Amino acid sequence: MNLKRNAALISAAAISAMLLTACGSDSNIEAASGTTAATCEGKSPLTGEGSSAQQNAMYNFTSVYAGMCSGKAVEYTTSGSGNGRTQFVAGLVDFAGSDSAIKEEQAAAAAERCQGNPAWNLPLVFGPVAIAYNLDGVDNLVVTPELAARIFTGQITTWNDPAIAAVNEGVSLPSTAIIPVYRSDSSGTSDNFQRFLSASAPQAWTLDHSSDWAGGVGEGANGSSGVAQAVAATPGSITYVEKGFAEQENLGTADVDFGNGPVELSSETAGTAIDTAEFSGEGNDLVIDIDALYASDVENSYPLVLATYEIVCSKGYDADTSAAVKSFLLSAANEGQQGLEQAGYVPLPESFKERLVTAIDAIA
Question: How far apart are CA 243 and CA 329, in angstroms?
Fold first, then answer.
């Protein structure tokens, strides 16, 4: 099923009252110790577009920012990471939200848009990716990366397949057909999930990874909310989707055996994995070495996480835009982290936050 594209526009001024109440914030929020608060300077509205995986985080960021900076608005359209990067490169929005770093030819085009200066990838929050399913009577399911790869390429087609039963001893698995649901839009979540399968199950997943899904079987749906809703409506289905969206639809989430026994997806197990993350970008371009993270088998860690980036010009904005970008990102990196765990994300570790704030301050 290909669900119709439904872009959502988030305006900080319009939703601030509701969301500030929800996340327990007020207009006098103070920045975390050792970090820099928003300046509330620059133009309004600031515009962004892209990742639907960060949609709920952006609700949080924009509402908190509106509470801190009266009269300032941030308008963010959720249309998928690929669309966000395209709109940023074209100069149609001030920043892009993306679950994959901008790279290669598109990075070169972004540098032209930034008046000859490189674009930076700045991660604001990490989102654990659930392997979410709808299987009546099965509340506890274990999968391995190899099983996931075989399911999403159509090599395993029924829930009572012996390979699934072997890692789910004592669980009554029905003969229901498995219906994989994948992102039909250009998606950083698809890119990251395929990279995870390639890194952790290279013999079972031999396909290339990109923002477009390569599995070849199943049904497509648009956006993170779209795939979660599709699975909720389709018995026997399974998808890859950010934790918060799986929780919103009350989907089952599989424990994943990365090599040291089944690991439950939680903020704690995802945080353990994030603590091991290293950077592959240079200087203030904070690109996570995601392949190394995905290949990790640290005990009691859940490395299937994606880094949510905001892609910005390092230089080349006009003064009002530069000031607004810096002000909003500083707020998101500090006060905006409050409430993220309740929305299904893992807030930034303090040491990482310090490096992020240094990069934001360097935007010229």
Answer: 23
